[in-house]
């Protein structure tokens, strides 16, 4: 690359940066995206809940800042435990950090039944404080397991905040990787077809039309049959299709650009086709390309949701925003937070991507911001 190319690249980057810094809406959108990405990256490590941990005592728990278990739920939980242990819970005293009670039965109480406390999500390992002479009554104490569900739990009792953040990793990674593939293939293919024109353009675009005619779902099913289900397979399937729209958009822009005077001057100076594409055609298509790329990320996320709904996408215990929204939609009447939490994360990301795409389109427009 020549020194002039480096200067052109530096001036383009400087101009884009200056325009973006002057666009407050685009800057706020970029801050939101960085915040969402950072939360999805480190958030699951800070919530205190593994994304696949099932709390059997907390299914469909509403969001709350308070600690669980609530005072009114301890005694019913003890009654359920006593029923499973085939004893009676008597003289229950619930403290701030522990619960004390007497386990009574018609015959001697086996101390091994205390393991039920440790298996519960509400209590820790219990210890015997006193035993009656005939062994029919045990006074025990068990610590309370305090936990918090800021965004509630899902139908199985898994922390929804942790699963939303962990699902954001999958959705954002898939959206960014598929968009990168679409940009890499679509921009190069469309720019070459639009600039070359004639028979080369006709042959290249007929190939695009043939790929458009292939049924996408059938293509994914065939990949699953031969290679099995995986996140990498989704990336391959989506990336192999989404570049087609990008190629058409870039081709239309390239066909208009090749008639400009500066392109004809470059041809008259003897620049090669590759140099003209690199220095004149591709840079002048970046505005609509970036705007489309910003919209392609949410489109890929929604497409992944559709594949997961069909059972061809992300599989349990892994999750994604699409899977969580599909699960929440089925429980919206009884547990609306299961839909609202991942939907709010997705909507915030989509709006930020859209506004940032518009800001980048204006910044990359050689005619200046609109």
TrEMBL record:
Its main location: membrane. Pfam families: BPD_transp_1, OppC_N. The chain crosses the membrane at residues 25-46, 170-195, 207-227, 233-250, 286-312, 337-361. It is found in: Cell inner membrane; Cell membrane. InterPro entries: BP-dependent_transpt_permease (IPR050366), MetI-like (IPR000515), MetI-like_sf (IPR035906), OppC_N (IPR025966). Residues 168-357 form the ABC transmembrane type-1 domain. It is a multi-pass membrane protein. Keywords: Cell inner membrane, Cell membrane, Membrane, Peptide transport, Protein transport, Transmembrane, Transmembrane helix, Transport. It comes from the Bacteria. CDD domains: TM_PBP2 (cd06261). PROSITE patterns: ABC_TM1 (PS50928). PANTHER family: OLIGOPEPTIDE TRANSPORT SYSTEM PERMEASE PROTEIN APPC, OLIGOPEPTIDE TRANSPORT SYSTEM PERMEASE PROTEIN OPPC. Belongs to the binding-protein-dependent transport system permease family. OppBC subfamily. This is Oligopeptide transport system permease protein OppC. It comes from Methylobacterium crusticola.
